[in-house]
Write a structure and sequence with these properties.
The complex is a heterodimer of chains A (113) and B (116). In chain A, strands 2, 4, 5, 9, 10 and 11 form a six-stranded mixed β-sheet that branches. Chain A is an all-beta fold and 113 residues long. Chain A is globular and about 40 Å long. Chain A is 0% helix and 52% strand. By secondary structure, chain B is an all-beta fold. In chain B, strands 2, 4, 5, 6, 9, 10 and 11 form a seven-stranded mixed β-sheet that branches. Chain B has a four-stranded antiparallel β-sheet with strand order 1-3-8-7, with no helix packed on it. The radius of gyration of chain B is 14 Å and the shape is globular. The model of chain B has no long low-confidence stretch (mean pLDDT 92). Classes of the chains: A mainly beta (113), B mainly beta (116).
Chain lengths: 113, 116
């Protein structure tokens, strides 16, 4: 059972464009929604995270938008750069649930110069 | 701090062989995790631990075993390797209220395992 559904599987964007990756979840007990960034040959690293008490969180060019009623959240990368080319994973966890993360299947982002 | 370290980086096993993947963290984190990553499938949790002496199964535990005798170390054991265990394995750790952002999991560089 896939608890976090991520789309698209791959995304190609021109430099300076906006990259948008979407995730949907089923378990209403989830209360923490991070995005991880992974470069080839490396482990994932936390990029940005949000809790459901806010609808948006921005850190530099990266923004998470959260829609609790629709059980959806998305990552927006503004002014996308070739250095942003990586695989992005959304995830979700339950507070007090041993901090276990359930990951989406990932989106491979390519930003063309 | 070295963070989360994993050894080996690469390994080729024959069917039926056994091996232990090592994971060590120097951040005094209570929680540690083992994931496997297969192409297009995201990361699947194999086992996790909330502290020394305490381990529990994740989503895909079959064919694996773990132990947690110290806070720092969380080795993953493959007893009878099968081709289905060909994957990239990541160890991660987090500490409630510790280093970094709350809930942030710090990942190691991974071990690429091939079973032939």
């Amino acid at each position: 059972q896939q608890q976090v559904k991520q789309s698209p599987q791959s995304l190609i964007v021109q430099k300076g464009g906006i990259s948008i990756i979407n995730c949907a979840y089923e378990n209403t007990a989830f209360d923490y929604f991070p995005w991880y960034q992974q470069f080839p040959g490396k482990g994932p690293a936390l990029l940005i995270a949000i809790r459901p008490d806010v609808s948006e969180k921005k850190e530099g060019r990266f923004t998470i938008s959260f829609n609790k009623s629709a059980k959806q959240f998305s990552l927006h990368i503004m002014d996308s750069q070739p250095g942003d080319s990586a695989t992005y994973f959304c995830a979700a966890s339950i507070k007090g649930g041993s901090e276990k993360l359930v990951f989406g299947k990932g989106t491979k982002l390519t930003v063309n110069p | 701090n070295a963070g989360v370290t994993q050894t080996p980086k690469f390994r080729i096993l024959k069917i039926g062989q056994s091996m232990t993947l090592q994971c060590t963290q120097d951040m005094n984190h209570n929680y540690m995790y083992w994931y496997r990553q297969d192409p297009g499938m995201g990361l699947k949790l194999i086992y996790y631990s909330v502290g020394a002496g305490i381990t529990d199964k994740g989503e895909v535990p079959n064919g694996y075993n773990v132990s947690r005798s110290t806070t720092e170390d969380f080795p993953l054991r493959l007893e009878l390797a099968a081709p289905s265990q060909t994957s990239v394995y990541f160890c991660a750790s987090t500490g409630a209220g510790g280093q970094g952002k709350l809930n942030e999991q710090f990942f190691g560089p991974g071990t690429r395992l091939t079973v032939l």
